[in-house]
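Dear all,

This email documents one entry for the complex benchmark we are building for the journal club exercise. For each entry we list the sequence lines for every component of the assembly. Then comes the predicted three-dimensional structure of the complex as a token string, followed by one or two observations. Please use this as the template for your own entries, and keep the labels exactly as they appear.
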Amino acid sequence: MKRKVISMLLIASMAAALAVGCGGKEESGDAAGGTAGDTAGEENQGNEEQGGGSITFMAPDWAIPTDDQLKAFTDETGIEVVVNEVGWDDIRDKLVTAAAGGQAVADVVEVDWSWVGEFYAADWLEPLEVSDEVKEDMPTLETFTKEGNVLAIPYANDYRLSYYNTKQYEDAGISSEPQTWDEVYQNCKTLKEKGVCDYPFALPLNAEEKTSTYLMWLAYTMNGVVFNDDGTLNKDSVLAALKYEENLIKDELVDPADKTSSGMDAYKRILSGSANFLTGPTSFVSKSTNEEDCSVIGEITPILVPGKDAKATVTMALPEALGVTKFSENKDEAKKFIEWYTSADMQEKLNETNTAIPTRNSVLKKLIDDGKIQNAGAMMEEAELIASPFPGGIPAYYSEMSNSIYNAINKMALGEMTADEAYAEMEAKVAELAAE
Amino acid sequence: MPSLRQNNMKKKILPYLLLTPMILIMGVLVFYPVIATFSYSLKKWKLTAPNDIRVVGLRNYAAILKSDSFWYSFRNTLFILAVVVVLTTVLGFLVSVFLNIDVKWSGILLAVAILPWALPPYVNGILWKFVFSSGYGFMNKLCIGLGLVSRPVEWLSSRWSLLVVVSLVVTWRSIPFMALVCLAGRQSIPEGLYEAARIDGGNRRTIFRRITLPLMLPFLGIGITSTSVTAINVFDEIIALSGYSDLGKNLLVESYLTTFSFLDFGKGSAVTYLVMLFAGILGVFYLRNLNREVEY
């Protein structure tokens, strides 16, 4: 009898567990899958009773507002924000997996500039409304606009700025900052010959995204063009940039470790003085004044990016933005959150708490004028030169194209290919993708 | 009192009842995904073209089998597989011989030997990247210190040296499992057999060849099958050591890139299916050849 009772209890508990495990959730307010979604769903129910609702927000650590900031938003709107902090690399995978199954991984998600084309083609982002005034003030918004639709609003401004170590220039007897890419090259040779810096040029060459984007902005700032109108590569411009990189490698002006270390490690060489020149993220403005990051404080100056015959008239931006997923069931609340998050007031606060570079030029100017961004150099001037090298916006095949570009560059860096061969390989792939 | 017929009925049904939960779990978590993936692999299904999803038959397979990228990844996979299986089997077996010696610290030694197995694969990769880094790596410091080389070697910069490093890293992680399986196999052999062999005049080599090896073959079969699956499914270590570079990519990286980076679920599913078939064929081959009944 006892055994029968135990058996029955076990069967009943297994059946209950199965029913709970397979059971669906029908409450409104969240379509997200996985743990985050379930939690959000429960939160939603509670908040809807209060009248404000709840949203889920998936972003990397640097985009997460402080608890006080989030509380202020909730107090103002009644909308509770359930934060799901996820590594930048994982966000796209999670979003893709959920979206393929028609689910929203979160209501508000991080949108990198390079994902816009494919997300637009896949119809995963909800168009957002933006006033003309904001459009005017936010040049990087163009990157997130496809066929007139604003798909995400940029919150972190990352555009390309050049940096050089002034003390090393003085030690090598070089008197003025470089104006052209040829000058940069010659100065690097001088620095090496005089034994001031062994590998003066910081250049990512590993097979990763930063290697592709470096080639793009090098070609863009050197020749003003990267892609033809049909999406294929502009041979003259890209090949010239590739040959420039090839010469830097051949003359050993680039650290051999840059071929296999991460792109960020290659950039960071300038912070230790092992590199002299970098064209890289705007975040290096603050890094160059931070004792924890930089061992050559006071020696690095941000300057306008060099060009072919004089300073470049354009620069490329690689901003990060927030968007609303198409499958979200809290679109209005999510849009309110993005509007709040990217407001001028919040951009100023996020610069203070998260060191985010504002995407609104008016805020950026204010922070520089107020001395809140130190050692800004040509930062503000460069921000006004932001333009997109993609004639039709970021293409839907960007990932595949970038993969082909960085692999070809990496092979060239490892001596498996010449610049011409690397160009031929990437050109064939890009042409094939553009034709598709 | 239940009748004889009722009892027989109960006996017939009970095994099926007991198997039902496992069949359900396997059905949902294994068979359904296997069937679903196969159906995806027969479709043109690119997420960036949501309005153009259609059945294309075996065209995805044909395109993959014609692509240089697939065969390049396949060769890399075969290389890693061969090196990992050979090294893991030999070294795992040797480690098990040492672990079988009964000393005071056997338990601690066993725990230490298992440690690499417990390490997450990505952490394992990062750890070894520090060792083989061309700039600040321990291996270069060691080689330069010993006067073997004058300049740092770029271990991760050429295809074959990178694959050797990947294989060594995976071997390091796989040895503990192989050693444990071999140890279990070795300890299951009755001591009486060895005594009898010694009385019959068998020397160490004969005893190993005639008793230890044949009786351990089924265990080696399990170890080799598991190691092979591990070697085919290497992903984290490759990403940690060389990122998504073409240089060291294997079939799994190819599958990941196609599916999640290029958003081509049709072709990605086909690559996944080919990897699964490859692993399956290998598993059947091992088990048929190594898991034989032994008579003694």
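Observations: The interface with chain B takes residues 14, 92-93, 96-97, 99-100, 117-118, 121-123, 206-208, 255-257, 259-262, 396-397, 399-400, 403, 406-407, 410-411, 414 of chain A (CB under 8 Å). Chain A has two domains: 48-158+319-383, 161-316+397-435.
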